[in-house]
Specification:
10525_t:CDS:1; 4-stranded parallel β-sheet; alpha/beta; 12 helices; about 210 residues; about 50% helix
């Protein structure tokens, strides 16, 4: 069926679709203006207006997502969830920082006010933040932000081979080490969340549904 035929079946149904995952900003003829035009066309879709799509959206998600800022891992797309379903916090290497007002205020808001049922810490392979956390040429802000990952080196030095050792390793061996480091980093963030006073207080309520997933 054509797009028009599908629309005739039910004019109020918006069918899920997979966007062009290889569409590149660099290939847009007019750069940012094309992005703005795309957004306007999407927002002006007659189906959205007829069903008062934006008016009906509620910000009462059951899932709080802490993920990496990497542009290749958009939460709604890889989870296949719709608008209003995920409360998202993204930063370099999916960190939860107790000394960061942004991290703590979002945790307080999602747990105490939205009352989410699931907190997801989502790491990913090929994470540049994890891979480069211990480089000597990082500026002070990145050193501070990636401090948790840098501390992993004290416990798991085998995950941080020196250049000579790296030169003798295969690509598969290097990839596997970095995958393990990603997993350890996720586990560390889950542990910090699990021992946070906001979460522990919520868990004191036996009727409360709240789980943390790494």
């Amino acid at each position: 069926k054509t797009e028009k035929d599908h629309a005739d079946d039910n004019p109020y149904e918006i069918r899920a679709y997979l966007p062009d995952l290889m569409r590149s900003f660099g290939k847009l003829e007019n750069g940012l203006q094309d992005v703005l035009n795309n957004n306007k066309r999407w927002a002006d879709t007659s189906q959205l207006k007829e069903m008062r799509f934006f008016d009906k959206l509620e910000n009462e998600p059951k899932l709080y997502w802490i993920g990496c800022s990497d542009s290749r891992v958009p939460p709604e797309l890889i989870s296949q969830l719709g608008f209003g379903q995920v409360f998202v916090h993204r930063n370099i290497a999916n960190q939860f920082k107790t000394d960061d007002v942004n991290s703590m205020s979002e945790l307080e808001f999602t747990v105490n006010h939205i009352k989410v049922e699931h907190i997801v810490v989502c790491g990913h392979t090929k994470c540049a933040g994890v891979k480069n956390a211990c480089r000597d040429d990082l500026g002070k802000n990145l050193v501070a932000w990636l401090s948790d990952i840098r501390k992993i080196k004290d416990v798991h030095p085998e995950l941080f081979p020196d250049q000579e050792t790296l030169s003798r390793m295969s690509h598969d061996e290097i990839d596997r080490i970095q995958e393990i480091l990603v997993e350890v980093n996720v586990a560390d963030q889950v542990k910090k969340l699990s021992t946070n006073d906001i979460v522990k207080k919520a868990w004191e309520d036996e009727k409360r549904k709240l789980a943390i997933h790494g």
